[in-house]
Design goal:
Low-confidence stretches: none
Distance between the termini: 39 Å
Number of helices: 4
Structural class: mainly alpha
Strand content: under 5%
Number of domains: 1
Radius of gyration: 19 Å
Amino acid sequence: MVTGTLFAAGQDLARAPYRLTPPLRWAPHMLVWISLLLDGLLGGLGYKVLGIDACWLRRLGAARQWWLGAGPDRQRLRYG
């Protein structure tokens, strides 16, 4: 997935000056790469500061995202 995203961003960047694609169509593809790089940087920094305990912070963050986004069915919980 990540290699395909980089490939798509490169194609869109190459076509944008010739107006063959919308001007900012490459931006979402690059945001995937930027988020991947930031996650690696923050993970490395967290490991350097907290050691192996930094893995628990990442798990808590993932659990929070799951709960806020694709978590349990909120309607079912509210109305039984």
